[in-house]
What we know:
The protein is built from ten helices and 18 strands.
Amino acid sequence: MIKAGNMPHLKVTPFDTSTLQEKVAKSTVMTSFSTSMTSTDMIIGVEHKGEEFLLQLKPDDKAYLLKYDKVTRPLKVNILKEALGLVSEELELVVLSSNIALSNTKAALSSEYFKKIEDFADIDYPKDKVSVEVGFGSGRHLLYQAEKNPDTLFIGLEIHTPSAQQVLKQIELQGIENIWVVNYDARLFLEMLPSNICTQIFVHFPVPWDKKPQRRVISKNFLAESMRVLEQEGRLELRTDSDNYFWYALETFFSVPKTEVEVRKNEALEVTSKYEARWLRQEKDIYDVYVKCRENSQERTDTVDFNFNGVKYTKEIENNLPKKALVFDGYFVHFERIFKVTEESLLIKCAFGSFDRPEHKYLLLEKNGCRYFVAEPVKTTVNFSAHQKLVEQLMLTEG
Ligand SMILES: C[S@@+](CC[C@H](N)C(=O)[O-])C[C@H]1O[C@@H](n2cnc3c(N)ncnc32)[C@H](O)[C@@H]1O
């Protein structure tokens, strides 16, 4: 029994896939076809409305499932649905069930105020002043600040997608134009910003993670990145109700050679978040810790380059690529699955990068080179280290 879930898919009557390669060659929407080296799964490459992505075809006794591929999925679900419809028409599939009726509701994540982390590789900041809020939750503080400071762009970071969607809706409803919402881990995001761009970085009530302190937002590395992106006299502002987190943060802030820290207890802010209101009712202590940036930082000069330096398809790679995840200091690389596209080309599904926010990508390995399909990873230091290991492993196996 194949489980399809809610994302766009079609269940179709089993059909002869031996002619798929030929059909793809003639198709207007399909661009490639590949088969798994270890299972019966297949992958169909498509190009529709300027977006390139993959569809998965999973055969089963009673029905074949044609569905979206998570790694390469386009942002607009309707593009995916249209492509599934077109492929099914071209292949003359007999549809048993489907959920690809086009919807007119605009997905909140397609709002112009939603930014992908990749966008920051080359982005124009519409305001001279920029502030960042980490983990905005209900967004009360973020929306309040944005309304009060129309000359500042507020970049809100939140890993919880439904909260990001809720706040995007509020932005549209309230007609606010100076917030960007980024659905990404704040610990990796700051690297994407230029030096000295921020006035404030708010970290309000971060999850204390008492049992897993390595997951905390505040760390030496986060402090260093915050100081780089803050302008001179800019501030990192932590607000917490957790004694543990307060002492942990102080220790972290004082562990660097030079720092200027200000501490306050039970300071009332102009706006109270839902989360904070609960603690206030319980008369819990709340701590503010402000770290001032004392000087401007240099622009980052390190260039992240996701080249494969001449790695090419060989039979050895096809047969001998390490199957297990390889773990290094702070990151990992894992060649998860291999799909054969032609006699001399492969699609390799990989996971790599940080343990908190791994990247999932396909590599297209051909006779004349290798590249990420369809897009490169996010340009973070940890992804770059992992990329170099991927290249190293491919070269070691290449023969
Ligand atoms: C306890 S809530 C506080 C929310 C809000 N700041 C407030 O004061 O009500 C912590 C929020 O941080 C988000 N969060 C946790 N770790 C994060 C990270 N690494 N990057 C971005 N957001 C994160 C969580 O999803 C959650 O919404």
